[in-house]
């Protein structure tokens, strides 16, 4: 068994099996019985924990997944899970179905502050007199498994003691029995608290801290910031997992300090991180697919970005065969915020000044001519086409902007046309669906780029002549009225700041994408079960930011 998979072993089986295998196994093998809750598990996790993830074992929630996916995809996932279990249990006669499933409840995985490498662990080459002072820190994981059947858990423990090649040693800490289990030289420490939770970790100190917490020391459940998000959680149907980060800035700072590759966070970056106070996220399953929701609690005094919801009308400017889209509102406000923040980052400020200087040679003001007029809704969409300059890739793109400053937008496009002429590009005008469109034409390949006005306040820029035709002279229904777009985004929160949308069926037929996945039959099988991906964000007030993502899945064949 590879070292990376054996480091977090619980007696005779990896903690990864208890956490990861339980979660995956339930896709096809749903256990029975109630799960322990996140709050109960958090009461034995030390308050120093940086974050915690709780994986539910509610059979109804996991059974909901079984209504999705093609038969081929389900067989593929089942085989992968079977192979995984065989590998993890290859050195023992432990059976997940008989030995773990009957007693294992919900699983909480907590990340504690990293432990510095002990001096004895530091190997210094002979002849080296200087020992580095910045030692790499090890990750510190604590896993809490709910016990829903004490008798089954006892039978499992007794069976473990009969395993060959596994050494057991007991010790006492504050009246609690800690079991050290060593397999292939890798120790794992575990303790059962109140006959309701199995606590385990690769470091004995982590288990001792859990015992201290059980005895009355501050817990993750009582930690400022954590108690609120633990009790409130995230509202998702058939919840599979919840993630809790009570102090986001501190978590990033401590994890970065424990990484040898990471540089020390500058004060400006830390100030940005402090805008986010806490984060809670949830994963669940509903009739549309797998849904993820996250709530970030912000410091309104530090949050500089002025959120504004998007009407969503811009989506109606795209044809129904658009397979990917990103939309939003107010690029100009976002740009102003970025410029303001760059004052605290010399490298960023220098980069912006360089871009400004380069554009000035073309008589273009970056702030006014490029971003200043982009004050309404916007969207970028990918549209299939196999003609002209797009023949090799199979798609082109279109940018659509609503603006209240048409005069400046027109002046900017005229400047860009003039700049293109200096590069030996032919500028020509064409009428598409009654709209005047300007094209940048390349000999024998047609239009490289086109731009024009869809109405008084809406301008588009398209890559490829066929894409310009699809946007300017739309003969079929618009994207927002298509069944695919409704299925992927229709259940997302409204109002919102815009969408990220991906139609998987259309995406995997694009020549460039198809060439990348055509050699992997398993990838094609999995993608065939996915209808699309939708993502949106919302900010009901200056102290809250909400994110929602839907992995829309196809119903399984009855």
Topology readout:
Layout: H1 3-6, E1 9-10, E2 13-14, H2 15-25, H3 38-42, E3 51-55, H4 59-64, H5 71-88, H6 96-100, E4 104-116, E5 137-147, H7 150-160, E6 166-173, E7 176-183, E8 186-193, E9 197-201, H8 204-214, H9 226-232, E10 239-245, H10 248-257, H11 267-273, E11 276-286, E12 289-298, E13 324-329, H12 331-342, H13 346-360, H14 366-372, E14 377-384, E15 395-402, H15 406-421, E16 426-432, E17 435-442, E18 446-455, E19 458-463, H16 465-472, H17 483-489, E20 499-503, H18 504-507, H19 511-517, H20 521-527, E21 530-541, E22 544-553
Antiparallel strand pairs: 1-2, 3-4, 3-10, 4-5, 5-9, 6-7, 7-8, 8-9, 10-11, 11-12, 12-22, 13-14, 13-20, 14-15, 15-19, 16-17, 17-18, 18-19, 20-21, 21-22
Which characteristics define this entry?
elongated, 20-stranded antiparallel beta sheet, 20 helices, two-stranded antiparallel ribbon, alpha+beta, 558 residues, 32% helix
Describe this protein's structure:
With 558 residues, the protein is α+β, with helices and mostly antiparallel strands. Helix content is 32%, strand content 30%. It has 20 helices and 22 strands. The strands form two sheets. It has a 20-stranded antiparallel beta sheet, sandwiched between helices. It has a two-stranded antiparallel sheet with strand order 1-2. A hairpin with a 3-residue loop joins β8 (186-193) and β9 (197-201). α2 packs antiparallel against α5 (71-88) and α14 packs across α15. The protein is elongated, with a radius of gyration of 28 Å.
């Amino acid at each position: 068994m590879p070292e990376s998979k054996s480091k977090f072993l619980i007696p005779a089986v990896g903690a990864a099996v208890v956490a990861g295998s339980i979660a995956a196994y339930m896709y096809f093998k749903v256990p029975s019985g109630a799960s322990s809750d996140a709050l109960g598990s958090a009461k034995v996790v030390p308050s120093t924990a940086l974050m915690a993830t709780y994986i539910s074992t509610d059979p109804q929630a996991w059974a909901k997944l079984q209504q999705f996916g093609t038969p081929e995809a389900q067989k593929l996932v089942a085989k992968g899970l079977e192979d995984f279990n065989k590998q993890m249990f290859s050195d023992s006669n432990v059976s997940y179905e008989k030995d773990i499933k009957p007693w294992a409840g919900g699983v909480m995985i907590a990340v504690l502050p990293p432990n510095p490498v002990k001096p004895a662990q530091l190997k210094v080459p002979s002849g080296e007199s200087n020992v580095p002072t910045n030692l790499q820190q090890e990750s510190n994981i604590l896993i809490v498994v709910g016990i829903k059947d004490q008798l089954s858990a006892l039978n499992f423990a007794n069976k473990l003691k009969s395993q060959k090649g596994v050494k057991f040693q007991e010790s006492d800490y504050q009246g609690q029995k800690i079991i050290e289990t060593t397999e292939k030289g890798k120790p794992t420490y575990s303790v059962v608290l109140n006959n309701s939770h199995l606590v385990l970790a690769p470091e004995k100190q982590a288990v001792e801290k859990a015992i201290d917490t059980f005895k009355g020391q501050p817990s993750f459940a009582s930690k400022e910031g954590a108690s609120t998000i633990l009790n409130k959680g995230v509202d998702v149907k058939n919840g599979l997992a919840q993630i809790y980060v009570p102090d986001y800035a501190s978590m990033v700072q401590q994890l970065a300090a424990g990484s040898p590759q990471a540089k020390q966070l500058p004060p400006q970056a830390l100030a940005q991180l402090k805008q986010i106070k806490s984060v809670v996220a949830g994963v669940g399953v509903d009739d549309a697919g797998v849904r993820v929701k996250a709530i970030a609690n912000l410091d309104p005094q530090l949050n500089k970005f002025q959120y504004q919801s998007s009407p969503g009308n811009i989506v109606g400017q795209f044809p129904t065969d658009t397979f990917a889209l990103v939309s939003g509102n107010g690029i100009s406000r976002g740009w102003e915020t970025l410029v303001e923040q760059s004052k605290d980052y010399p490298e960023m400020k220098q980069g912006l000044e360089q871009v400004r200087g380069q554009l000035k040679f073309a008589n273009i003001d970056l702030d006014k001519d490029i971003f200043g007029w982009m004050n309404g809704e916007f969207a970028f969409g990918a549209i299939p086409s196999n003609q002209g300059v797009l023949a090799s890739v199979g798609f082109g793109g279109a940018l659509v902007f609503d603006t209240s400053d048409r005069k400046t937008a027109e002046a900017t496009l005229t400047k860009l046309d003039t700049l293109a002429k200096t590069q030996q590009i032919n500028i020509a005008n064409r009428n598409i669906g009654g709209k005047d469109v300007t094209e940048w034409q390349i000999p024998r390949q047609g239009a490289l780029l086109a731009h024009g006005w869809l109405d008084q306040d809406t301008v588009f820029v398209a890559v490829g002549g066929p894409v310009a035709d699809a946007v300017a002279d739309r003969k079929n229904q618009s994207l927002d009225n298509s069944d695919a777009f409704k299925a992927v985004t229709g259940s997302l929160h409204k109002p919102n700041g815009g969408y990220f949308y991906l139609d998987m069926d259309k995406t995997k037929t694009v020549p460039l994408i198809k060439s990348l996945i055509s050699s992997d039959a398993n990838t094609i099988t999995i993608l065939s079960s996915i209808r699309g991906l939708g993502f949106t964000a919302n900010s009901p007030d200056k102290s809250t930011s909400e994110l929602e993502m839907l992995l829309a899945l196809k119903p399984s064949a009855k």
